[in-house]
Structures are given as C-alpha cells and as structure tokens.
Amino acid sequence: MVELIDLVLLGMLAITALRVIFLKDLFAVVMLFGLYSFLSALIFVNLDAVDVAFTEAAVGAGISTVLMLGTLALTGRKEKANNHTALLPLLVVIITGAALIYGTLDMPPFGHPDNPAHQHVAPRYIEESPKEIGLPNMVTSVLASYRAFDTLGETAVVFAAAIGVLSLLGMPKPGGVAIDSGLKSHLVLRVVAKLVIPMTILFALYVQFHGDYGPGGGFQAGVIAAAAVILYALVFGLPLATHVVRPNFLKVLAALGVLIYAGTGVTSFFLGGNFLDYNVLASDPVVGQHIGIIVIEFGIGITVFAAMLGIFYGFAAQAERTNIQ
C-alpha cells in the first residue's frame, strides 16, 4: 500500500512538472509549483519524514509561493516570446538527467537493512541519542546537536540570502508610501484573517517550543510566524504591516538570531567544552543539551522569521513603487 501511494504521488509530481514546462502563464506556473511542494510534502509524510514534510509545506508551498507572486508583480504574468530554438536546452536537460540516473546505478537499494546508513549511522543515533541528548524527537537531536555545525551554516545562509535580496530591493519605510493597499473591500476575508492570524502565531510558538518532542523547530516556526505577518500585509496593506513589525527591527532580529546561535557555541567553548558542545552548559550533560538546543532553536526561529518577512517586505515595497509609477 505504501509503494502504491508513493507511485501515485510520484506520477502526480511528474504530471505537474510536465505541465509547468508548457505553460506560458507564469501565475499558473507559480500555483503549480505550490502544488508540487504540497505533493512533495505528502511523499515525505509517507516516508515518515514528518519534519522534512513540515518544512517543505511551510517554505515550498507557503513562503516561496508568496515570494514568486511578488516577483510576478515586478516582471509580468505572461512569459515573453523568444526566438531561440529549444533543442539546446533540451539537450542540456537530457545530458544532466542521464548523468543523474547514471550516478544512482551504484547506490544501495532503497530501504535495504544492509545499507551503510542502517549499519553505522542510524544505529549510533538510535542507541545513543536517548542517553546523550535525551530528546524524544531524534530529528531535533541530529539537527541541533550532532549536526549543529551544519545547521549553523544553514542559518547563516538564510541570513545571507536576506542580505542579498534586501541589498537589491531595499526595505520599505514604516508607512512611507501612503497608498490604498490591502483588501479593504473584502470584509469577509478581513474578518477571517483577524481570526486566523492570532492562531497562526500561536501555532508558530507551539512549533518553536515543541520541536524537542514532535515535528517542528526554529525553521518551521520562523516561516509560520512570517506567514502570519505576510497574511496581515496582504489583507490590511503593507503600510500597516510595517507599523506592526518595523523593517529596522527585522534587520536587528536577523542578525541577533545568528549571534545567539554562534554565541551559544562560544559560551560552551569558554566553559571548557568544544564549540557547540552543550554538555558544559549545565552540571548534568543532558540538561545542558536541552538548554543549548532550546537556545539555538530560538536563534534559528527569529533569524528565519526576520529573513522571510524582510524578503517579502522588499518585494512588496518594490511592487508598490512600480505600480505607482
């Protein structure tokens, strides 16, 4: 039954991807990309990778869709006609696909118990993680403790992406553009948004501080909280949103989250441990692990929140300035 579900979802992914290739309406392409992300999330759920599915749904189908729509506001809905032949791109795709398929030929069978990952890495985490980290959610143990260096790099990449986008687009001034934005004529949508936004923020807090015990963590919580403010901006207007969460405050938050993460590593270093060795943060190593993971997940959450919302502010402000002109 699991294999049948995987085949159906993969078939739907293939159909969606093929449809995207031939569409000229970029708005429809963005919608299909959102559908593609939802299908990917379902596949991850079927593979028991709920944390990855959570991230794919929040980032791929949520924030990415909004940002691509913001890009369309700057570029246009229809793909421009081009005169070049499609043979060269097709050849590149065929060669790349063939190389990828060739690279999978010597891979071990999917899910086989004798695979190296199941013989070395997985048993180590399964057997030692409850004693060393003490968290029910083993994914959080791996990402936030065993693999903390890599996760710090991912957080820095999100921060760098925000810097790059805002360097090109800039940030809006709070209420700086007095235009009639938002969906003021849609009364039902505004009422529903007032009900949904507080619950979304509450859910983001739950995901943030419950990631030790279930699917969630700083990445997912930051995106969900940013989505709540983005919904507020879309419904009530960008000027009001920039008064609620000011752009300058986002700049501080984005840098602060990375500093909190790296500062936790420096603190453990000065307490006699290795960088990002949480064991020295308390007399009991397991308690130290809990403290370190909570702190660095909080840093991840505020950096992701600030970066995602800041990027949206940049696109939205640029789109509004374009519409005025």
Taking all residues together, what is the mean pLDDT? 85
Number of domains: 2
Number of helices: 12
Tally of strands: 0
User: Whole-number radius of gyration?
Assistant: 22 Å
Helix percentage: over 70%
**What is the subunit organization of this protein?**
single chain
Low-confidence spans: none
Q: What is the string of helix and strand elements?
A: HHHHHHHHHHHH
- How much of the sequence lies in strands comes to under 5%
Structural class: mainly alpha
Shape: globular
Terminus-to-terminus distance: 56 Å
Q: Mind summarizing the main beta sheet? A: none
Pfam family, one: MbhE
Keywords: Cell membrane, Membrane, Transmembrane, Transmembrane helix
Domain MrpA C-terminal/MbhD: 12-76
Subcellular location: Cell membrane
What does this structure look like?
The structure is a single chain. The protein is an all-alpha fold. It folds into 2 domains: 1-80, NADH-ubiquinone/plastoquinone oxidoreductase chain 6, subunit NuoJ (Four Helix Bundle (Hemerythrin (Met), subunit A)), CATH 1.20.120.1200; 131-325, no CATH class. Helices cover 76% and strands 0% of the residues. The protein has 12 helices and no strands. The protein has helices at 2-22, 26-46, 50-75, 87-103, 116-132, 138-146, 148-169, 187-209, 218-236, 238-244, 247-270, 285-324. The longest helix is centred in the last third of the chain and has 40 residues, at 285-324. The chain is globular and about 65 Å long. The model has no long low-confidence stretch (mean pLDDT 85). Belongs to the CPA3 antiporters (TC 2.A.63) subunit B family. Pfam families: MbhD (PF13244), MbhE (PF20501), MnhB (PF04039).
